[in-house]
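REQUEST FORM: STRUCTURE PREDICTION
Request ID: SP-0412
Submitted by: Lab K.M.
Chain count: 1
Length (residues): 267
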Amino acid sequence: MKPIKFLGQNFLKSKKIVNEIIKAADLKPDDVILEVGPGKGILTEALLEKVPQGKVIAVEKDKRLVELLAQKFRHSKNLFLVYQDILKIDICKLIENCKLKIENYKVVANIPYYITSRFLRIFLQSNFQPTKMVLMIQKEVAERIMAKNKKESILSISVKAYGQPKIIKKVPARYFSPQPKVDSAILLIDNISKDFFRDIDEQKFFEIVKKGFSQKRKLLKNNLKMLDIGGLTRCGVGEKVRAEDLSLENWKCLAGLFTPLEVDYRR
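STATUS: Completed
RESULT:
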């Protein structure tokens, strides 16, 4: 008999790696945890043990896995199983549906790799942000977020604008079943907030960043169609740089310096 395929998921099978995830999450007994893609429950079980006075909200889109988890944890009083697609769910409504009054929560998850960018955008840009995220993601994506090659991207700038990312551990493919074709990494995003945008407009900031990266090989000044080249100097940026060379603070300076009339967003 062929094994059942569950929506392309690769299930973590190493308790050693689970312990690394738990350690990175710095859990307190009364924490509220949102777990996305609990799969067969190896991480769920560890989370429930660490937050006996807290709650674990596990969101799973595969009905068969929801049924499996419901049976496996039928005696648990602090697990809330939600049969939903996390990309289509309203976070605030999710919490209300679980009848929980929550001010702070953490996301701890082994997410499907193809949803990583959208997943990060949804939770980091939300008005109901988690305080911390510990995610198992593709190693190359984690390294791109950290700008390991000293080249920034829209993804890395977006994550760093909301929190402090750190690669906790690289995880070889052999720790999953079925085994994926790529290695993974545990990524911690700590101290999540919107403090970065206290004195700069969030939407305007990302409009300028996206415009700056619109054609990667072009110089930044050409992508932004800037009328005032001196603005680059005032932000500590050379005239010959590309978008990937700018730091988070460089982008913040540019966003605060230029008005919408100075950047043609329509192009």
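NOTES: DSSP finds eleven helices and nine strands in the chain.
Reviewed by: T.R.
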